[in-house]
Task: inverse folding
């Protein structure tokens, strides 16, 4: 009955159970932390603003990012992944190419990450950085050689159902950034030592791109 | 001499019962593991609810051998989330972070670009030839939970199959020989 195997089995089972319960409790304890992070993103300069050969707008920004994320750190925090993204919406209208009457409209939502960083300790969680965008800030709608109405099959379906005549997306999709108002969002993704991951963001509004290429 | 035959018969029947009992308990173990796995698939909505990190491309957040719990919900995928995706022509799914999203509102049409935290550039080199974006059907799930080191068990077992067979053999022997 009380052989070596039996005892070993009991000890291992008990140890694994305790470990699992400890991990779960540690992860649950994160819920008691109510963080109050602050962030501010300033666009200091538009370095250049162009239309690429493929028709998509691209912009280069100089940013000043300051944030205090130290309240996000708990004893279960391994690191915080922080990034700044530009978010904007583009309404698109599909027009009848013969009568120029709007047939249907869509809103395209874009989130473009501009800069990111990894914070590994609470001491480094209050930071200030002056940087150009690390990832390309490009508008995007079509990468293939086809216009969107052929490329996007569900849209094609919708259009053919709407009317028997041919509709085209007359607005050149992909160069929507001129004069665009967009939001800057500072996101954080808390990666724990064990358990559940948390993510949240601060949205900053009122950013505009210039009307003209530069 | 009838009592000898009787007792032999009773021992034999006992052994048969015991063997049957062991087979049933073995079956219970296998089926309950299967039930847990399939149940997790239902709850999380992901075809593989638990994945093991195999590469160092997400370091220092995720190291080789860590376990991720996936969830596949209806919510649209957003930048910053860590997703597990399949690329056509690649057997092993990849765990990376979303850095760009372009989507059409009120539809499922979405284009996603990913990058490993520890990689210098984005994942376009990893995608299928000529592929620039991930679509919704490539995504297997988003990572919601994390457990360190536990995945080493599976890594060791897939890399050294002999250990797997030894372990299965030993466990099988234990189940068969154990009395109650």
Result:
């Amino acid at each position: 009955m009380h052989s070596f195997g039996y005892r070993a089995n009991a000890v291992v089972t008990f140890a694994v159970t305790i470990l699992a319960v400890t991990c779960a409790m540690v992860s649950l304890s994160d819920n008691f932390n109510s963080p109050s992070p602050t962030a501010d993103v300033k666009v200091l300069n538009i370095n250049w603003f162009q239309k690429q050969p493929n028709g998509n707008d691209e912009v280069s920004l100089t940013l000043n990012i300051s944030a205090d994320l130290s309240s996000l750190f708990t004893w279960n925090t391994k690191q915080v992944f922080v990034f700044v993204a530009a978010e904007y919406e583009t309404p698109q209208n599909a027009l009848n190419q013969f009568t120029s009457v709007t047939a249907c409209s869509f809103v395209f939502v874009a989130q473009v990450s501009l800069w990111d960083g990894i914070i590994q300790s609470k001491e480094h969680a209050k930071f200030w950085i002056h940087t150009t965008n690390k990832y390309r800030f490009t508008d995007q709608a079509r990468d293939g050689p086809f216009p969107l109405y052929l490329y996007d099959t569900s849209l094609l379906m919708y259009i053919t159902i709407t009317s028997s005549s041919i509709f085209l997306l007359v607005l050149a999709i992909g160069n929507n950034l001129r004069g665009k108002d967009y939001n800057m969002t500072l996101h954080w993704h808390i990666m724990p030592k064990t358990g559940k991951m948390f993510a949240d963001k601060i949205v900053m509004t009122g950013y505009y791109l210039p009307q003209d290429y530069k | 001499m009838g009592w000898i035959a009787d007792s032999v018969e009773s021992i034999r029947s006992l052994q048969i019962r015991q063997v049957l009992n062991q087979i049933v308990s073995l079956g219970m173990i296998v089926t309950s593991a299967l039930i847990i796995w399939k149940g997790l698939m239902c709850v999380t909505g992901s075809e593989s609810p638990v994945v093991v990190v195999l590469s160092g491309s997400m370091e220092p957040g995720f190291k080789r051998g860590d376990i991720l719990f996936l969830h596949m919900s209806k919510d649209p995928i957003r930048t910053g989330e860590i997703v597990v995706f399949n690329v056509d022509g690649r057997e092993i799914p990849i765990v990376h972070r979303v850095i760009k999203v372009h989507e059409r509102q009120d539809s499922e049409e979405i284009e996603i670009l990913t990058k490993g935290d520890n990689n210098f550039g984005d994942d376009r080199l990893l995608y299928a030839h000529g592929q620039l974006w991930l679509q919704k059907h490539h995504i297997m799930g988003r990572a919601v939970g994390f457990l360190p080191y536990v995945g080493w068990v599976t890594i060791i077992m897939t890399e050294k199959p002999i250990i797997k067979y030894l372990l299965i053999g030993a466990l099988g022997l234990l189940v068969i020989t154990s009395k109650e």
Observations:
- The longest strand of chain A covers residues 77-96.
- The interface with chain B takes residues 5, 23, 27, 78-79, 81, 83, 85, 89, 106-113, 116, 118, 120, 135, 140-141, 143, 152, 154-155, 187, 189, 191-197, 199, 201 of chain A (CB under 8 Å).
- Chain A has three helices and ten strands.
- Residues 188 and 212 of chain A are 33 Å apart (CA to CA).
